[in-house]
Write a structure and sequence with these properties.
Layout (H helix, E strand, L loop, with lengths): L14 H4 L2 H12 L5 H8 L3 H13 L19 E9 L4 H10 L4 E6 L6 E7 L2 H11 L3 E7 L14 H6 L10
Antiparallel strand pairs: 1-3, 1-4, 2-3
Length: about 180
C-alpha cells in the first residue's frame, strides 16, 4: 500500500490552531479526494494555491494528516474474500507477540488491539476459502480465533468532520455557530 507518511512531532504547529473552519474544510476535501490539486483545493476553501499548500504541509507536520493511500478493489486484484478475525491471545505476553506476528501477514489489511474478551480484531483478505483456512491455521498457535466472512460493506469510507459537541461550544456572541 503506497503511503506518504510524515513525522507527527513537528514543533510550533498546535493542531487545534490548524483546525479552524478552513482547516476542517481542507480535511473534508482531502478525505474525499487526496489527489485534488492545490489549485482546485484552494478554490474550494477560498485560499491561494501557495497558501493551501502551506496549510496542508503544516497539517501534515502537526500529525493531523498521516498519509495518502490508494483504495483498491481487493476482489479485482485476486482477493475476493474478506473476513474479520477476532483473536484472544494466549499467555502473558500473547498480545505483544500476536501483534508483532500479524504485522508480517500480508492477508491482514487492518489489525486493532481491542478491549473486552478479544485481544485483536483483524480485517483480512484472501484468495479462497482454502487460503482463509491456511491463514487461520497460522494464527491458531497464538490464540483462539473466531472468523466472520464479510457479505457486504455498506460503509467503506467516511469523511470525518468537526465533532458536533465542539462545534456547538464555539458560538459567536450572537449565538451563531462559527464552524
Amino acid at each position: 500500500m503506497a503511503t506518504n507518511v510524515r513525522s507527527n512531532t513537528a514543533e510550533g504547529f498546535e493542531p487545534s490552531r490548524l483546525l479552524d473552519g478552513t482547516g476542517w474544510a481542507i480535511l473534508r476535501e482531502l478525505q474525499e479526494n487526496a489527489r485534488i490539486s492545490f489549485s482546485e483545493l484552494g478554490r474550494r476553501v477560498s485560499l491561494t494555491p501557495p497558501a493551501v499548500a502551506d496549510r496542508v504541509r503544516r497539517m501534515e507536520e502537526a500529525g493531523l494528516i498521516l498519509g495518502y493511500r490508494a483504495q483498491v478493489a481487493t476482489d479485482r486484484i485476486g482477493y475476493p474474500i474478506a473476513a474479520f478475525v477476532r483473536m484472544r491471545a494466549r499467555g502473558e505476553r500473547g498480545c505483544a507477540i500476536l501483534g508483532e506476528f500479524v504485522k508480517e501477514l500480508p492477508e491482514v489489511v487492518e489489525a486493532n488491539r481491542v478491549t473486552g474478551e478479544d485481544s485483536y480484531i483483524m480485517r483480512v483478505v484472501v484468495r479462497s476459502v482454502e487460503h482463509l483456512q491456511d491463514l487461520i491455521d497460522r494464527l491458531m498457535p497464538y490464540g483462539e480465533t473466531v472468523t466472520a466472512l464479510t457479505l457486504s460493506s455498506p460503509v467503506t469510507h467516511r469523511v470525518l468532520g468537526e465533532p458536533q459537541e465542539r462545534a456547538e461550544e464555539e458560538e459567536d456572541p450572537a449565538g451563531r455557530v462559527t464552524a
